[in-house]
Design a protein that fits this description.
Chain B: Belongs to the binding-protein-dependent transport system permease family. FecCD subfamily. Chain B: GO terms for molecular function: transmembrane transporter activity. The complex is a heterodimer of chains A (339) and B (346). Chain A is 75% helix and 0% strand. Chain A is mainly α and 339 residues long. Chain A has one domain: ABC transporter involved in vitamin B12 uptake, BtuC (Orthogonal Bundle). With 346 residues, chain B is an all-alpha fold. Chain B has one domain (20-342): ABC transporter involved in vitamin B12 uptake, BtuC (Orthogonal Bundle), CATH 1.10.3470. The longest helix of chain B has 40 residues, at 3-42. Chain B has helices spanning 3-42, 50-57, 65-97, 110-124, 130-151, 158-182, 188-196, 204-223, 225-231, 235-240, 245-267, 273-285, 292-313, 320-342. Classes of the chains: A mainly alpha (339), B mainly alpha (346). At the A-B interface, helix 6, helix 8 and helix 16 of A face helix 6, helix 7 and helix 14 of B.
Chain lengths: 339, 346
């Protein structure tokens, strides 16, 4: 309202980013199918897209497609969840990984596998959802005790402590189980490798629900950004806004973690970079973050397949390497008082 | 006019009482470490009488017991004690110097720097033995320097230091995971050592480098102990008391990182020991006397007790770091809650 930039110009910038990110996403989708640890000819790619899996090349493509879909879904979900959490907690450092939500979800999945013998994608999701919800409540409760409420430092420390506890418990649970201990890698290091439509499809409705709730809460997040008093003065039920938006974010985290394992820093860096480019209006920031997150995770996955041929680098390692410097940069930019 | 003389006597008596109480505390802690050490030597999967243990330690060859004691239990117990001493002492130095219990090397990136470097030099460079320790110490120093440099802006603020450290730790942990995952033979046991810390497979050849490092860096620390106590009161006060703050700080960082790095190179980053030892020791000691030696002893007791619990008291064998991690996390949360309640900004 009081910005020096005319609003028409700002909308133009945002529309430019929206279109640009869509185009980038399209480009990355093509790249992620064409590029991989194995070089595949154009003929095989076309054949594979039509459903053939006769040659090794065609089979490789058939594996890459669900993987690409999962990277888009998980990247969009985590970046959107990060943006929503930053709005709900009014905390620049909020991220599903940093706040321990993803490690709580991972722990719950492993507990389900170890103690209740769950194996279906739906059951994975419900355990992840339970774990994510409990962890979110817990971290927020611990981090907001005392005067000053939930400051970034308190929340971050509570999150860091919770994730260390979750990882220790996680190893304690998984170590006696020799048959699943081999798969421990997936749950310690998040990645999109090994995705299949059989696993993705049952979780799709939850991605959709989380996306819808989160995007619809943009208005409320804009009010919350003004401060609780002003938001209440504008006629919002502050607590209700927070709860609804958090439900959306937790659904998204749980869905992504149930399929990919813990991925850190993605939900921190994407919204921050886009906020720099396009401003703080959540009505734009949320959809842009979703697109940006999908782009980044797809980029990370493709990069991870190319740089270390014939090995692969899991996406969570690449997001950590890119995200940690951005985290530190944000910390350095903030005044100590605000931390 | 006897009042002043009387009060001086009272003060002197109080001081004597404090000193003797401090000595008693040290004695009790040392006794606890010794008792745990003896327990580890005597009672494992099977019971070995104390006399047999002593005979083996005196160099006698006892049928059946020599291998068990000399090759399995003794190195493990010695490495546990020394690593615990190093972690406890190194951790408390950072906590005192930065005046914040949360500024332990676990959180501010030093332990993870050392761990990543150790994994890199073992898996990628195929090093072993003392060179690994040297690389780990150097990497720990670099990590400390990096966090210090990035957190410094108009002086080092505690909050920023910790947050930057959390960021660096997350990055280094990813590097460690990546090197482990891409290692030709991914072994769960090895991975757990470098991700949570373990004394499984400790060898007698690990003991000497650890002992040397403890003597060297512990000795360096000992020469700076008075200045460290002064730093506790704030940099300006310390400077007014005649402490060369910058020089002292550099020496203290070298000593503490040296301790942490050499222990990490052998056992991996045993979760939370360097964080827990200081606050526990401070609580035991109370207001009287230095917390350095008690913290080192508490560290040793923590590692011994966690390892024993992980080995023999639970249905499955767990590496020591899993146990100390599960024990330490609630304490960390309690600490955050307590600090938050008090309303003291970190």
């Amino acid at each position: 309202m009081f910005s020096k930039v005319p609003s028409g110009h700002r909308d133009a910038v945002r529309s430019f980013w929206l279109v640009g990110l869509f185009a980038l996403l399209g480009l990355l989708v093509v790249l992620s199918i064409v590029v991989g640890t194995r070089d595949v000819g154009t003929d095989d790619i076309w054949a594979a897209l039509n459903g053939q899996t006769e040659t090794i090349g065609q089979s490789a493509i058939a594996v890459r497609i669900p993987r690409m879909v999962l990277a888009v879904l998980a990247g969009g979900a985590l970046a959107l969840a990060g943006a929503v959490m930053q709005g709900v907690t009014r905390n620049p450092l909020a991220d599903p990984g940093i706040l321990g939500v993803n490690s709580g979800a991972s722990l719950a999945v492993v507990l389900g596998v170890a103690w209740f013998g769950i194996s279906s994608p739906e059951a994975y999701f419900w355990s992840a959802l339970l774990g994510a919800a409990v962890t979110t409540l817990f971290v927020y409760a611990v981090g907001s005790l005392g005067p000053g409420g939930a400051t970034p430092l308190k929340l971050t420390l509570a999150g860091a402590a919770t994730s260390v506890a979750c990882v220790s418990l996680f190893i304690a649970v998984i170590l006696p189980l020799n048959d699943i201990a081999g798969g421990i890698q997936t749950w310690l290091i998040g990645g999109v490798g090994g995705a299949t439509f059989h696993r993705i499809v049952p979780v799709l409705p939850f991605f959709a629900a989380g996306l819808l709730i989160s995007l619809l809460s943009a208005h409320k997040l804009n009010s919350l950004a003004l401060g609780d008093d002003l938001a209440a003065g504008l006629g919002d039920n502050v607590a209700l806004s927070r709860i609804i938006a958090s439900v959306g974010a937790v659904l998204l985290c749980a869905a992504a973690t149930a399929l990919c394992g813990p991925i850190i820093f993605l939900g921190l860096m994407v919204p921050h970079l886009l906020r720099l480019m396009t401003g703080v209006d959540y009505r734009w920031l949320l959809p842009l973050s979703t697109l940006g997150g999908a782009c980044f995770l797809l980029f990370a996955d493709t990069l991870g397949r190319v740089v270390a041929r014939p090995d692969e680098i899991e996406v969570s390692i690449i997001t950590a390497l890119f995200g940690a410097p951005i985290f530190i940069w944000i910390v350095r930019r903030q005044k100590v008082r605000e931390l | 006019m006897t009042a002043p003389a009387h009060s001086i006597e009272t003060l002197a008596a109080r001081r004597r009482r404090r000193t003797s109480r401090h000595r008693l505390t040290l004695g009790i802690l040392a006794g606890l470490v010794f008792a745990l050490f003896t327990l580890t030597m005597v009672l494992g999967q099977s019971y070995t009488p104390l006399t047999t243990v002593i005979r083996v330690l005196m160099g006698e060859n006892v049928e059946g017991a020599s291998f068990l004691i000399g090759t399995l239990r003794l190195p493990r117990a010695l490495v546990s004690v020394l690593a615990g001493l190093c972690f406890g002492l190194g951790g408390v130095v950072f906590q005192i110097m930065l005046r914040n219990p949360l500024a332990s090397p676990d959180f501010i990136g030093i332990t993870w720097g050392a761990s990543a470097a150790a994994v890199f030099s073992i898996v990628v460079l195929s090093l072993s033995g003392p060179p690994v320790s040297i690389v780990a110490v150097v990497a720990g120093l670099l990590a400390a320097l990096l966090v210090y440099g990035l957190a410094a802006r108009n002086g080092v603020a505690g909050a920023r230091f910790i947050l930057v450290g959390i960021g660096i730790s997350a990055m280094l942990r990813s590097v460690t995971s990546y090197i482990l995952a891409s290692a030709p033979a991914w072994s769960l046991q090895d991975a757990l050592r470098w991700l949570t810390g373990s004394v499984n497979g400790a060898q007698i050849s690990d003991v000497l480098p650890l002992l040397l490092a403890f003597t060297l860096f512990g000795g360096l620390l000992f020469t700076q102990r008075r200045d460290l106590e002064a730093l506790r009161m704030g940099d300006d006060t310390a400077a007014a008391l005649g402490v060369k703050v910058a020089r002292t700080r550099i020496l203290l960082i070298i000593a503490a990182v040296g301790l942490i790095g050499s222990a990490t190179a052998i056992t991996g980053p045993i979760a939370f020991v360097s964080f827990l030892a200081g606050p526990i020791a401070a609580r035991i000691v109370g207001g009287g006397g230095s917390v350095l030696i008690p913290a080192a002893l508490v560290g040793a007791a923590l590692v011994l007790a966690s390892d024993y619990t992980g080995q023999f008291l639970l249905p499955t064998r767990y590496p020591v770091g899993v146990i100390s991690g599960v024990l330490g996390a609630p304490y960390l949360l309690y600490l955050i809650v307590r600090i938050n309640r008090k309303g003291r900004s970190l």
